[in-house]
Amino acid sequence: MGQHVEASSVPGSGPAAAPTVKIDGDKPGEKGLKTGALGFASSVVIGVASTAPGYSLASVLGVVVAVAGIGVYAPAVLIVAFLPMLFIAASYYYMNRADPDCGTTFSWVTRGMGPWWGWIGGWAIIVADIIVMANLAQVAGLYSFLLFGVEDPSTTLVTLIGVIWIAIMTVICVIGIELSARTQIGLLGAEILTLALFAVVALVKVYSGDALEGALHVDISWFNPFEISSLKALVAGLLLAVFIYWGWDSTVAVNEETEDSSTTPGRAALASTVILVLIYVLVAVAAIAYAGPELLGDPENADDVLGVLAGSVFGSETLGKIVIIAVLTSAAASTQTTILPTSRTALSMARAKAIPEKFGQVSPRYLTPDVATWWMGGLSILWYVGLTLVSENILYDSIAALGLMIAFYYGITGVACVIYYRKELLKSVKSFLFIGVAPAIGSITLFYLLGKSIADLTDPANGESGDAWIGVAPPLVIGVGFMIFGGFLMVFWYLAGHREFFQRKAEVVDPRVLLDAGATPPVEHV
Amino acid sequence: MSAIVVGYDGTEGARAALEHATGLAKQLGVDVHIVFAYDRVVVGGEQGDLDRAIAERADALLREALAQVEATGVHADTEFVDEAPAQALVSAAHRLDAPYIVVGSYGERPLKGALVGATPHKLLWLSDRPVVVVRVPDVD
Q: Looking at the complex, does the CB of residue A12 fall below 8 Å from at least one CB of chain B?
């Protein structure tokens, strides 16, 4: 072999010399998802399911409300946090169009800004995914106990269940089991319905006077970010809240598989956005109104808010369990959408010779990147257990550290998009706005959040637990520590003689990318 | 000419199936059509590089299989399909009016088979043609 495989022709057509290799496309009446057959509804479902609203709310709502100065204004934070993500999504859409590669940020930043930046971007994705696994495992562990009515399980037991959870999800990803689109639509529908029902019942009880002590009537000021007393509080809240929209970019990323790739991804992304923002704000408002910010932000409850409230809102432990089940299915979906892209990023980096070749291995039986997936699972477990041993507040520490990572790699992706497309920006107003201005605004906002948070977190008093590791708040140690470690690994790899990848030059987009909405131009793969 | 459709992914079961299909084709005087099917996972975002890795693997395996069959004097061709294996085999069989579909037994992926169903099982539901399931010979 050895010839290039064009991105546009994968996977239907292998290298040209293969006999009778053909794309088996659009025969009517065939079932199953395949290239060119992912409809609007499936795209929306994949976008929303990848973001995992139930799990995101379960892990973030309490810690955002608990930030000093936010409290009832959490809905405003959730709305504002969405804006930079929306702007960055534009760069995902356009970078994916130029290069639909599973390395995402790694591949795109390498193209736009050169191999060193690309490597660090890829590293940030891997780290972010490992960090979030601790959070996912913790939520899954806690809610598993809630499901069986165990109120205060010991840390050891929660950790044990969390580890088992990661192990099972890793195996599922190695084997390559995927829920059918119909099953996902069903699960997601149940999740959204449950959350909506929870919110409506909670609000009805607030106005009928049956809510908890400390209940509040909804106030329009809750949606106003300018009510938040300090910039520091807003920044801290935003850094935590960007996490709930993480994963939403999958909607624009699956455009290669959609029925009409020129319009479906855009509309699907818009639809899943509206659903997400609505459900987040609705549930946040209902929970705050029902229980009041003191109860929600109480560290005792912050890590399982939905579980704590569900039984009370529905007036029955049994009915409350449907909320717990919704959080668990959502966490399962999120684990999958976390492990899959990370192992693919590692595969992409390995194929580009940026990390050891074995991470690029594809399992002969299951056709999944098995080595990268096992590593991902193993490192996640190691990280989760380690964090449990040293952290007082895993949920907060992991989400805040994750916020730093997400802000960094989304931010750098936006910058790479502007640089990669720089010669196209002035050719049309649309290009200028969507490929230039939007990613730039998103990047600037995220880098501002990143910088301000780093500065604030140097004072441990600004961390939620008040803990100090080496004199600063834990999330900063985690975030910066991992990036410095990554920098060492990168330089080590370079010095160990693997120069080929690092000799790549930054590129400029092929103007044909923008000409035809549906077509993907050939991209040289090295 | 009509052809026996065989599912092939390079695993041990698939090798046994290919061998059996070749023998069968010789007896019947038909061709062999070798299918490598790959059902991509749609969640989890982009997968260009994974697709390329799999396309490369499929290409290498299909060439090898093609050479192996043609060395026995049976005419063969290959196909790489981006679709669930069972569906891909059934539609290829339909298109080529295949007398048989030949696959390896599912013993190699017991866990996946138990959880989401094995390809031979699905074929029994989907195919209106005879399906030959070849067991991997026991190693002595």
A: yes
**Residue A433, domain member (yes or no):** yes
Domains of chain B: 3-134 (3.40.50.620)
Supply the pLDDT for residue A77: 94
CA A107, A110, A115, A116 torsion-angle sign: negative
Q: Count of A–B CB contacts within 8 Å?
A: 186
* Amino acid at residue number A131: I
Number of other residues whose CB lies within 10 A of the CB of residue A250:
26
Cβ-based contacts of A98 with chain B (< 8 Å): none
Residues 6+ apart with CB under 8 A from B6: B17, B18, B21, B32, B33, B34, B35, B101, B102, B103
Cβ–Cβ below 8 Å for A11 and B79: no
Residue numbers in chain B where pLDDT is lower than 50: none
- Residue A107 at interface with chain B, using a CB cutoff of 8 Å: yes
CA distance A341 to A512: 27
Is A313 a member of any domain?
yes
- Non-local (6+) Cβ contacts of A75 within 8 A are A222, A223, A281, A284, A285, A288
Domain harbouring A218, CATH code: 1.20.1740.10
How confident is the model over A265-280, as pLDDT tens digits? 667 777 887 888 999 9
Which residues, numbered 368 to 407 in chain A, qualify as contacts with chain B under a Cβ-Cβ cut-off of 8 Å?
368-369
B34 SS3 class: strand
Phi (first) and psi of residue A223, to 5 degrees: -95, 5
Please tell me whether the overall predicted TM-score, pTM, comes out greater than 0.80 for this model. Answer: yes
Subunit contact B52:A30, Cβ cutoff 8 A: no
Residues A376 and A342 sit within 8 Å (Cβ to Cβ)? yes
A369 token code pair = 């990147």
Instruction: Flag if A337 and B115 touch (Cβ within 8 Å).
Output: no
Joined together, the tokens standing for residue A255 give 């455009």
Structural domain total, chain A = 1
A-chain residue closest to B80, CA distance? A21
* pLDDT classification of A74: cutoffs 50, 70, 90: very high
CB < 8 Å to A171, chain B:
111
Cα distance between residue A218 and residue A290, in whole Å: 9
Residue given tokens 């709502």 in the structure block: A61
Check residue A280 and give its pLDDT.
Answer: 93
* Residue A257 lies in domain: 48-510
More confident residue, A484 or A33: A484
Q: What is the pLDDT of residue A31?
A: 27
Comparison of pLDDT for A180 and A421, the residue scoring more: A421
Query: For chain A, what is the mean pLDDT?
Result: 81
Nearest CA in chain A to B94: A27
Q: Is residue A24 part of a domain?
A: no
